[in-house]
Prior knowledge:
By secondary structure, the chain is mostly helical. Helix content is about 50%, strand content about 0%. It has helices at about 15-20, 30-40, 40-50, 60-70, 75-80, 85-100.
Amino acid sequence: MTDARLVTSNPALSLAVRLKMDVESSSNPYCWDSLFQLQACTGEAIIFFLNGETYLGPSCCQAIRVIEHDCWPEMLGSLGFTTEEGDILKGFCDAKAHSSPPTLPSIKPNKLIP
């Protein structure tokens, strides 16, 4: 005879809460949207490591930042990235978000002599 597992009505143990699917249990209501965006940009992340191309699109970096900071940091591992690769992606995207655009040098017009 096999034992059946009891389903509890405790909301703290519900699947929706554990997966942060409802707004009350999630610090960021965009966790699932970010996960789907990350799935869409996985190719960019693979090329980032395979070819050494240091470009990840803004939406890809946004998804990585949301997932790593607010949702499920271990999610990148479930997509096939090592912890170190996840840390590299997070670091790259964090640095990209905090970098300011380069300032243009000020150019003073030459004084015209009549």
